[in-house]
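Figure-free illustration: sequence to structure, shown twice.
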Amino acid sequence: MSSSYKTQPVGFLGLGIMGNGMAARLVSESVAGTADRPLYVWNRSAEKCDTLKAKFPDANIVKVGTAKEVVASCGVTYSMLSTPEAAAAVFNASEGTLAGVSDGKAIVDCATLAEADHQGMSEAVNGKGGIYLEAPVSGSKGPAENGSLIFLCGGSKDLFDSIENDGLNVMGKASHFLGAEVGVGTQAKLVVNSVMGTMLSAFSEGIALSQALGLDGSKMVEVFGQGACAAPMFGLKGNKIVKEVADHATNFPLKHAHKDMLLAKDLAAKTGVEYKTNNMAESIFKRARESDLQLADLDFSAVFEQIHEDSKGSCDYSAKRQKK
């Protein structure tokens, strides 16, 4: 299996916030001379394919009109669609992903979906003689661009082994095979993202309290970074949050973070695990997602703005923040 895939074109579906960086990593590897296979690309907004081609004029990038054509032309096709709804629509379309699957065609879906979504797609692909690997990633826009994603995989171990070095590890810094049962990768990703969202919610509350007390937000970010609760995310997001005009440029949309926390909440309920801390943070993200502040499409660090909004009336926090 592995030798045949290494000689066939590679496909990529979805050039959004994450997919664009991931596809660029595969292209960069080809331009560097370590791989000479063409990369077939498709995106619902076709101009994003043109942008990728313009960025790498010396690369063998093939823009096609349908997801079906990508899959039919390639040995392995990676898919990174932004939402469960988009993933289902592209997968099931008459000219979509499944329509291109035949014996031996491999689909690697990197989106964060519900377990049932990945399981249903796996059954459909296998039913047509194809091979499926769920491979949701831990990481956002920056890690996608610099190749430091972490892949959490379930499904075909043979497929995982055949693409780990010249596919997954080109786009990421680590790849983990968690089991042959499709769904385990999703479970791991939802645990990670629910903890991440909970951490950011608690951190945002701490910064809000610090500023309400008149403490310097930037100094508090520095203090956090020097203590036992230091985390890379706190330094990265904190320095953007404490600006006089906060920077919530989208790396990981708040609406997607909330979706993952909600899915994790459901997983915990099914297994009987107390997940109260996540559930409380999820309710804050829910308010932020639905808020008139229009935070849903901003980075998930914008949950800080909801915490700020919730704090109005209980202190003179708003005025103090404007002085920072």
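We now fold a second protein in the same way, so the two outputs can be compared directly.
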Amino acid sequence: MSEDQKTVYLSALFAGGSAALVVDLTLFPLDTLSTRLQSARGFFKTGGFKHVYKGIGPKIIGSAPEAALFFLTYESFKYYVEPRVDSNVLPLVHMTAATISEIVGCLIGAPVEVVKQRRQTSTNTKHTSLRIFMHAVKSEGLIKGLYRGYGSMLIQEIPFSLIQFPVLEYLKKVYRVSFKNDVPLDSWDVANCGSVAAAFAAIATTPLDVAKTRVMLADKKIATDTIRTVLKQIYNEKGFKGLFAGFTPRVMLATIGAYVFFGTYDLSKNFCNDYLLNPDPTVNW
């Protein structure tokens, strides 16, 4: 393994995990409110504004390795493919990289999301994350219980990434050429680009996120329904408004979260490259 490859792999792992932890700790309440708004039982019956950090345990445990795995895949794909293709097809490269990365990352993310969302919407104080996890495995099996939302999660996450990452890469390129005289962007510049890209993606994919939440929170019978069936059911029950339940906190979470995430990611990546992988002997720690 060359030094360049080592740098790409390790910096992606370190930066992805660091950024995920920062976002989870700071913005988890918005995620809880969004989940409760999308629940079929209703916002107040699933907890309302109370205990908005319920479910953060499994999220913290799972989100760091999920993000690390995602960006390891994403950055590696870019590293090997970008130099070998024409610049005109770079958006397709980024879309492909994002899709493959979601498929890999959701292997960790899906079980975490099932446990987290059930914890967020449970009003029983005895329903700890561990008990929810064990109940899902015992009553439905490891795959059906914890991966029931894997397909619906991919259906929601892949379109999100298909929009977010090509837009992010495009904005970074335009920002660098137009405002930075073609010098590397600062971390806050990357954060700005990330927040705009995430806002577009969040608006477009909210109905899919609502359907994913319904599937993950549903009983066994409803959990076998397809995304199309769930979307149709939601529309028949609550109309167009129902498809965009939790729209405001979701877009807020995506926008603010992306600003924090991509800013932290770039900062952590630079720190890893400059000080951990290639330490400067003149710096006194």
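Summary for the second example: The CA atoms of residues 77 and 182 lie 24 Å apart.
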